[in-house]
Design goal:
This protein has 168 residues and is of the alpha/beta class. Helix content is 25%, strand content 27%. The chain binds adenosine-5'-triphosphate and magnesium ion.
């Protein structure tokens, strides 16, 4: 397990972080995103999709709960959830949304704390806080993501993106 802290001072920086993580994830991975309205969860996911090489621009899935993004060949690669409008896990299970965890692709879940009990323990968990243009972003990589963490670390160091490794 690894925990990092990084500061973003612009929406572009948050997207750049998403891109670095998007370059490191693979099918079956789960990324959870928590933080208040307007924290930057969708902005991060926009970068994530770009890092994964997906052609479409990410928009908020608030009304549909989940949006699917395909690669250039039309294969679904990213499932972008916003569970803000769900009351709890029961809503999630009733809609059969947990089946996405078994599909080929990456799941990114905004407001994941709403469905906490339905989440896999293994995930990259982001919690975003702050206001104005400044955001403090805490990132937890569980053991499954050790390799992804190394790749993100390399990208961030190469691109001069600063972060603090809080260890674990
Ligand atoms: N450092 C920053 N990182 C991300 N967004 C920022 C930052 N500074 C300002 N912003 C602004 O904050 C807003 C973030 O919006 P975004 O839709 O990504 O938030 P969200 O967490 O997905 O919100 P919601 O809970 O409503 O889905 C944008 O308007 C963006 O321009
Ligand atoms: Mg959003």
């Amino acid at each position: 397990m690894a925990v990092w802290k990084t500061i973003s001072t612009s929406v572009e920086m948050t997207e750049q972080l998403g891109k670095a993580i998007g370059e490191a994830v693979r099918s079956g991975d789960v990324i959870t995103l928590d933080g208040d309205l307007g924290a930057g969860k969708t902005a991060f996911t926009r970068g994530l999709a770009r890092g994964m090489g997906l052609p479409s621009r990410v928009t908020s899935p608030t009304f549909t709960i989940v949006n699917e993004y395909n690669d250039k060949d039309g294969v679904p690669r990213l499932f972008h959830f916003d569970t803000y409008r769900l009351s709890n896990c029961d809503d999630f299970y009733d809609a059969g949304l947990d089946e996405y965890f078994d599909r080929d692709g990456v799941c990114a879940i905004e407001w994941s704390s709403v469905i906490e009990e339905a989440l896999p323990e293994e995930r990259i968990a982001l919690s975003i806080s702050g206001n104005g243009n400044e955001r403090e972003i805490k990132i937890t990589f569980t053991p499954r993501y050790q390799e992804a963490e190394m790749r993100v670390r390399e990208t961030m160091e190469k691109e001069g993106m600063r972060f603090e490794d809080l260890g674990m």
